[in-house]
């Protein structure tokens, strides 16, 4: 397991070169991101935070889909953030989006963005890369506004794949420091129970991608 201090430099090493062709290649296998964004459905002038925002690809799509919202993103890789800044500017969303370097396991939105809560928070293909992913989910729920929701999309349990293909895929993912979280839905349920929230689970593409949504009830 990586410590907090080692994880940022590790992510920088992983993405230093990949960030230049990341969006072109990932569209073929980071499945479920667009349905997750389509399901955000924030209030008209609501706030949206992406944890582990990478190249900014998802924030740009969310900004286009929900044109009056305020956008926020954090990432532990300065390399990825450099690309995200550039892409968000090119997309004309620079005035609506704020990005910050932060560890999802320990971040203070008040200090970073001068706000405590968000209407929507999403995490796309990052829980499978974050050692303290359960803590990150807990933290994210604590930063939801009343009636806010946390949306997570990531690799599913790949249960419908033949076992040879599944093993090969797991090995390949491991090279990229990715571990599918097969207990994602169970953890979402237990977090919801403690937070007066409800959970929605979606299995897409024969279990290749999972989306889980934790919706907070009013306080
Ligand atoms: C597989 S990429 C996904 C990027 C983007 N969310 C997407 O869907 O294209 C995972 C991202 O999570 C970031 N990340 C990993 N661990 C993190 C942590 N502890 N805190 C914040 N970001 C983290 C990585 O730097 C990387 O940008």
UniProtKB/TrEMBL annotation:
| A Pfam family hit | Methyltransf_25
Q: What is this protein called?
A: S-adenosylmethionine-diacylgycerolhomoserine-N-methyltransferase
Give the top-rank taxon of the lineage listed in the UniProt record for this protein.
Bacteria
Methyltransferase domain span: 48-148
* UniProt cross-references to PANTHER family, sorted A to Z: BTA1P, METHYLTRANSFERASE DOMAIN-CONTAINING PROTEIN
């Amino acid at each position: 397991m990586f410590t907090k201090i080692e994880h940022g430099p590790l992510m920088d090493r992983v993405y230093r070169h990949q960030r230049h062709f990341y969006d072109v290649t990932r569209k073929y296998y980071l499945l479920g991101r667009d349905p997750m964004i389509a399901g955000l459905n924030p209030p008209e002038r609501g706030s949206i935070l992406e944890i582990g925002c990478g190249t900014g690809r998802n924030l740009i799509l969310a900004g286009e889909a929900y044109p009056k919202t305020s956008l926020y993103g954090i990432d532990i890789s300065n390399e990825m953030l450099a690309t995200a800044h550039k892409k968000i500017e090119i997309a004309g969303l620079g005035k609506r989006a704020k990005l910050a370097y932060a560890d999802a396991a320990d971040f203070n939105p008040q200090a970073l963005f001068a706000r405590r809560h968000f209407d929507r928070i999403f995490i796309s293909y990052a829980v499978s890369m974050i050692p303290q992913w359960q803590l990150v989910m807990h933290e994210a729920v604590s930063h939801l506004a009343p009636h806010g929701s946390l949306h997570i999309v990531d690799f599913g349990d790949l249960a419908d794949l033949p076992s040879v293909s599944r093993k090969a895929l797991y090995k390949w993912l491991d090279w990229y420091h990715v571990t599918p979280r097969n207990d994602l839905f169970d953890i979402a349920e237990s977090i919801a129970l403690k937070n007066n929230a409800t959970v929605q689970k979606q299995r897409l593409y024969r279990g290749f991608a999972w989306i889980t949504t934790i919706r907070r009830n009013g306080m």
